[in-house]
Design goal:
Layout lengths: L2 H5 L2 H10 L3 H12 L3 E6 L7 H5 L4 E8 L2 H12 L5 E6 L10 E7 L8 H11 E12 L5 H12 L5 H12 L9 H10 L2 E7 L7 E8 L1
Helix pairs in contact: 2-5, 7-8
This protein binds S-adenosylmethionine.
The site of S-adenosylmethionine has 18 residues, from strand 2.
Length: about 220
């Protein structure tokens, strides 16, 4: 386990993480979902916050969420049960140790920055995707200004019972110098080196602090 994973105690974070959804996160989940189709694999699915959005997405036929934190998977399982119209499966396992049947599309939101070997995991995601399938990779970058982002979210969330916990945990994560934070160009080079083509790349969300890539397996 790398130092980033030690400091980011995902189990402890799971309750506030699931219940707090500031508009920046809402926009991110909506945009990622809009690219998904077929059976969707979610790498580092956390509490399954994207499940309600995928369940509304025409063309999505199923969902597989993978996460190594047991409490996150328990919460994602609860979330999946709320949307029985989508066939869902949750796997409590490291992405590195997971074998999946080929999937139609894939996503990973804010998980890449804690992976011990980002290139090896991206290679694995590439192998598990059907040719022509899309993979949306979203991960915070070096420009992330967490204090400002949380300040903006506070006006929406201040009375939420888990807001303070959510805020404290996010500040702790952003102060962790063990995170892998890449520029957009560095991330593009990495995904191209494993074979992905870049369909779209931007930093419009999280006040410029998030790399958002839409990738295709050729
Ligand atoms: C910030 S949370 C994001 C959760 C979710 N993608 C979302 O945006 O709501 C990061 C998640 O990645 C998971 N994670 C990090 N490294 C992982 C790995 N190597 N294998 C499986 N899960 C991992 C953590 O357990 C955590 O739940």
């Amino acid at each position: 386990m790398n130092s980033a994973a030690n400091i980011t105690d995902w189990d402890d974070y799971s309750l506030s993480f699931q219940s707090v959804m500031p508009s920046q996160m809402l926009a991110l989940n909506r945009e990622v979902s809009s690219y998904m189709s077929g059976e969707v694999a979610d790498y580092g699915c956390g509490a399954g916050k994207i499940i309600p959005f995928l369940a509304q997405q025409a063309g999505v036929t199923g969902y597989i969420g993978i996460d190594s934190a047991a409490e996150m998977v328990a919460k994602a399982t609860w979330m999946a049960a709320k949307f029985p119209q989508m066939d869902s499966r949750l796997i409590c396992e490291k992405i590195e140790n997971t074998t999946l049947p080929p999937v139609g599309s894939a996503l990973s939101i804010n998980s890449h920055y804690t992976w011990p070997d980002t290139k090896a995991i991206l290679q694995q995601i590439y192998r598990q995707l059907r040719p022509g399938g899309l993979f949306v990779l979203a991960t915070i970058n070096r420009n992330i200004d967490m204090a400002r982002l949380l300040g903006e979210a506070e006006v929406e969330m201040i009375a939420h019972p888990h807001w303070q916990q959510f805020k404290d945990h996010n500040m702790k994560i952003s102060q962790n110098d063990g995170l892998t934070l890449k520029s957009l160009n560095e991330l593009i080079s990495e995904v191209q080196s494993v074979g992905f083509s870049v369909v779209e790349a931007h930093q419009k969300l999280y006040l410029g602090g998030l790399n958002f890539l839409v990738l295709e397996k050729n």
